[in-house]
Amino acid sequence: YCIGMLLRITPELFEKFPETRLSVVIAHGINNQGQHSEVLEMLRLEQIKLTERLGTGPITEHPHIAPWREAYKVFGAKPKDHPSSIENLVRRVSKGHTLPHINTVVDVYNTVSLRHLVPVGGEDLDTLQGDVLLTLAGENEAPVILLGEKEARPPYPGEVIYKDDIGSICRRWNWKEADRSKLTEQTKNLFLVIETLPPVSQDVLKQATNELATLVRTYCGGEVKGVFLDSTSPQTQLL
After folding, report:
1. How far apart are the first and last CA of the chain?
2. Cβ atoms of 28 and 189 closer than 8 Å
3. What is the tens place of the pLDDT at every residue in 111-155?
4. Which of 10, 14, 38, 137 ranks highest by number of CB atoms within 10 Å?
5. 56: phi > 0 → left, psi -120 to 50 → alpha, else beta; which?
């Protein structure tokens, strides 16, 4: 990776979604090997608690999920076919599926995602080149192989993506990430992102971020810090 790498939200994104807020948890020198029974227990507990947290209305109308469906429609994605990461996670758990152990960091961020009903994702910094942008896809984006897919396909012009100098690392905002930058047991340096749209409050974002940073530090070690981004403060250094 390159020293001085930034994560930057571009003005085009704020033009369409002015109240976007992110937090970024940046971790260097972690150990993501092995399995922690406490982390799996936390994840299972959040899955059990999810039903009471959701209430009785349709998942699609929950105030933490509906705004993502609206946002996806704005950039031309069908939320039914391409649900946001939080809707996808909630649907899987609501149908009785147990979330599998993937690795410690992913288990931790799925725990925080379910607890606060916010999208959380992450990328391996050592797989990236140049700055990371949260932006709108242009006309000629490079094809990308997404997690679990065999064929590379380019993002659609105008959809929200995260990208670096090589190409997109997450499509349709937080729908699915690229295989290239996924977090593995070998990951040493990473950034995690929690994304919010109104009506989710800054307090929810802060609490989720503090918990995420603390859990990564507790179970993976390393140097960990959290940063908040919005239209007044649209970038941070990743290294």
Report:
1. 9
2. yes
3. 999 999 999 999 999 999 999 999 999 999 999 999 999 999 999
4. 137
5. alpha
